[in-house]
Design a protein that fits this description.
The protein has 549 residues and is an alpha+beta fold. It has helices at residues 3-8, 123-131, 137-151, 223-228, 240-244, 249-266, 274-277, 297-304, 367-370, 414-426, 429-464, 466-498, 530-540; strands at residues 27-30, 40-47, 57-58, 61-62, 68-72, 79-84, 88-89, 92-93, 96-97, 102-109, 157-163, 168-175, 183-190, 195-198, 215-217, 288-289, 334-337, 340-343, 353-361, 372-377, 386-389, 507-508, 511-512. The strands form seven sheets. A seven-stranded antiparallel sheet has the order 16-14-1-2-19-20-21. The chain has a five-stranded antiparallel sheet with strand order 10-11-12-13-15, with helices on one face. A hairpin with a 7-residue loop joins strand 12 (168-175) and strand 13. Helix 2 (123-131) crosses helix 3 and helix 11 runs antiparallel to helix 12 (466-498). The N and C termini lie far apart (79 Å).
Length: 549
C-alpha cells in the first residue's frame, strides 16, 4: 500500500491534543426492509476545510508471502509502522469494495486519555485496509478487531458504519490509552426495517450481552471500564456512550442535532427530542427508528442536504442569514463578543462538506452492478450525486486523485467547479439556490430514470463476460460525470450573467430576454429584504433617512 493510498482518500481531520475538536461527518444507515426497493444504504459526508474532494480506486492485488505494508497517518501523513499484507486484496472504490461492503465513520473523540499514540493503525487505515480484506459486514467487524488487537489503535473514539447488501452494523471503538494495544468496542446490527444515524457523538448505550446474531463486543469492553474507574455497576446496566463519551453541550447541539433533524423527517414522533437537543431533557434519541414509510434514494439525497429547515435550529430566519436568507454559517463555530462566547449551528449540509455520497447495495444483482456509490463533491446543498459502480475499473477524471488540489484551481476538477458555483450562490443565496436546485433536480432525476435501462444492459453484458460489464459501467460513469461538468460550468456562467452587480436580468427557461437590440430588458434591482432594511435602521437610526424637504 503506497503512501498516496494511505492519505489521499479523504476523511475528517481530527482535532485532538492542542487543536479544537472538529465536528464533521454525518452517516445515515438504512436497512433493506426500510428502503423503497430493498437496497441497503449508507450515506456519508466528509467535512473539513483541509480536505480536497476526490475519489480513489485501487484494484485487487496478489502479494507474495512475508510482504509488509507501510502505514502512514491518515491525517498526519507521518510514518507509523508496518503491518503484514494478506495474500489477496479486494478492489476498493472510495468507501465501497467489489463485494458491496461499505465502511464509513464519524469521530466522537471521547476520553482523551484513551488515545494510544504508539499504535500503528488509525481510523482511516482501519477502514481502507478492512475494505481490502472483508467480503461481508460481519467479516469486516472481525478484521477490524483483529487488526487493532495485533497492531494497536492510535485514533480517538470512532463510530463506524459497516454495511453489505444484506445487513448493516453500527460499531463504536475507542483505544485503551498510551502504550496499550487494542481497543474496546461494541457493534450492533441495525434491524432490517429501521434507519440509524450518527454524527460525531457515541450513540450506543446499553446492549444485549448474549445475542451474538445482533451484537458483538470486545471481551473487555466492560471490565476495562471498571478497571479505569469509569463504571462500577452491573454488566447489564453498562452504557457504552455514557462511559466512554459522556453527553455534553457540544454533543447535543452540534452532533445529536443532525441525527434528530434526520429522524424527525422519517418519523415525526421523534420531534419531541428537540428538548434533548436544547438541553431541556435527558431523554436521549433512540439508536434507530422505524420510518413511517419506505425510504427512497431521492429522500436520502434530500436528507444529506438538511439545514434544520422549519425547526428552532433553522438558519435562514435571523440576522445571520441576511441579506439573502443563507442556510449556512461560516466558521468558526465559536465566536466571542464582550467576553461572552456564542456559537453557530451545525447542519448536515454546509460549505464545509468536502465530499459526500450515498452507497447503495443490492443483493439481487451481481456485485459489480449491485453496488453503487452516488458520489458528489463540495457542499451537499448544491452537489450532484453521480452513480459510480463498484464494478468499475477507474474513477471519472473529474473526481480522480491529482486533478487539482486545495491550493490549485482546475477547471478539470469537479471539486473546484462545484465550489465555484456554490460560492457564487452564497452571496445571493435565496435567488441563486432556486436556479441551482432546478438544474440539480433535473440532472439527478435523469440519472435515476436511466438507471434501469443501464443496468439491464450491464446484466446482459455480465452474462457474456463480467469484464464486458466492467468496461460498460466504467464508461457510463465517466460519460455522466463529463456531462455533469459541462452543465455545471454552463450553470456558473448563467448565474454570473443573471446576477451581475447585485441586479437580476430577466430570463425565460434559461434564455435571457433582450429588447430586440441585444440590451437586457427591464433589469430588476431587488435590493434587500424588508427585514434587513429594518435592521439597518435599528443600528443607524436616522443616518440614511431622506429629508422631507
Amino acid at each position: 500500500m503506497k503512501k498516496s493510498y494511505i492519505h489521499r482518500i479523504s476523511l475528517i481531520i481530527i482535532g485532538i491534543l492542542h487543536l479544537q475538536f472538529v465536528y464533521g461527518g454525518t452517516n445515515i444507515l438504512v436497512g433493506k426492509d426500510a428502503s423503497e426497493d430493498g437496497s441497503t444504504f449508507c450515506t456519508y459526508s466528509a467535512d473539513s476545510y483541509y480536505l480536497y474532494g476526490e475519489l480513489s480506486f485501487y484494484p485487487n492485488a496478489d502479494y507474495s508471502k512475508y510482504t509488509m505494508m507501510d502505514i502512514y497517518g491518515w491525517d498526519t501523513h507521518k510514518y507509523q509502522g508496518k503491518i503484514e499484507q494478506v495474500a489477496n486484496t479486494y478492489a476498493v472504490l472510495g468507501n465501497i469494495n467489489e463485494h458491496q461492503v461499505c465502511i464509513t465513520e464519524s469521530t466522537f473523540g471521547g476520553r482523551k486519555e484513551l488515545i494510544d499514540t504508539t499504535g500503528v493503525l488509525d481510523y482511516g487505515n482501519l477502514i481502507y485496509i478492512t475494505l481490502q480484506r472483508a467480503k461481508t459486514a460481519q467479516e469486516a467487524i472481525q478484521v477490524m478487531s483483529d487488526l487493532v488487537n495485533r497492531y494497536g489503535y492510535c485514533s480517538s473514539g470512532e463510530t463506524f458504519s459497516i454495511a453489505d447488501p444484506n445487513e448493516i452494523w453500527i460499531m463504536e471503538m475507542i483505544g485503551k490509552g498510551p502504550d496499550v494495544k487494542g481497543a474496546v468496542w461494541v457493534a450492533l446490527r441495525v434491524p432490517d426495517d429501521c434507519v440509524s444515524a450518527h454524527a460525531n457523538h457515541s450513540r450506543i448505550t446499553t446492549f444485549p450481552l448474549n445475542d451474538r446474531a445482533n451484537c458483538r463486543y470486545s471481551k473487555d469492553v466492560i471490565s476495562f471500564a471498571k478497571e479505569m474507574g469509569y463504571f462500577d455497576g452491573r454488566n447489564k446496566e453498562f452504557n457504552f456512550s455514557e462511559v466512554y463519551d459522556p453527553v455534553s453541550f457540544n454533543a447535543r447541539r452540534f452532533c445529536e442535532s443532525r441525527v434528530w433533524s434526520i429522524f424527525r423527517k422519517l418519523d415525526p414522533t421523534t420531534e419531541k427530542y428537540i428538548d434533548y437537543i436544547l438541553g431541556k431533557s435527558n431523554e436521549r434519541l433512540p439508536l434507530w427508528i422505524k420510518p413511517q414509510k419506505k425510504v427512497s434514494l431521492l429522500e436520502l439525497k434530500n436528507l444529506m442536504r438538511d439545514h434544520f429547515e422549519n425547526t428552532p435550529l433553522a438558519l435562514n430566519n435571523d440576522v445571520g442569514a441576511e441579506p439573502f436568507g443563507a442556510e449556512y454559517r461560516y466558521e468558526p463555530r465559536f465566536w466571542e463578543i464582550n467576553g461572552k462566547t456564542y456559537f453557530n449551528e451545525t447542519p448536515t449540509a454546509s460549505p464545509k462538506n468536502a465530499f459526500s455520497f450515498i452507497a447503495q447495495m443490492r443483493n439481487w444483482l451481481p456485485n459489480k452492478i449491485g453496488g453503487v456509490l452516488w458520489f458528489g463533491v463540495d457542499d451537499a446543498t448544491f452537489t450532484v450525486y453521480i452513480p459510480i459502480y463498484c464494478g468499475t475499473n477507474s474513477v471519472p477524471t473529474c473526481f480522480s486523485v491529482g486533478t487539482g488540489s486545495l491550493l490549485k484551481f482546475s477547471w478539470e476538477s469537479a471539486y473546484w467547479v462545484f465550489n465555484w458555483v456554490s460560492n457564487l450562490a452564497y452571496g445571493k443565496y435565496k435567488y441563486m439556490a432556486e436556479d441551482i436546485k432546478k438544474v440539480q433536480s433535473d440532472f439527478e432525476q435523469k440519472l435515476e430514470d436511466n438507471l434501469e435501462v443501464v443496468e439491464v444492459a450491464a446484466q446482459s453484458l455480465y452474462k457474456k463476460s463480467p469484464e464486458y460489464a466492467t468496461r460498460f459501467l466504467t464508461e457510463y460513469s465517466e460519460n455522466q460525470a463529463n456531462i455533469m461538468m459541462r452543465e455545471w460550468k454552463a450553470l456558473g456562467e448563467f448565474l454570473m450573467v443573471k446576477y451581475t452587480d447585485g441586479n437580476i436580468k430577466r430570463e425565460r427557461n434559461g434564455k435571457f430576454i433582450d429588447n430586440g437590440w441585444g440590451i437586457p430588458e427591464n433589469i430588476q434591482t431587488p435590493g434587500y429584504s424588508e427585514e434587513y432594511y429594518k435592521r439597518i435602521i435599528e443600528t443607524t437610526g436616522d443616518k440614511y433617512i431622506v429629508p422631507e424637504n
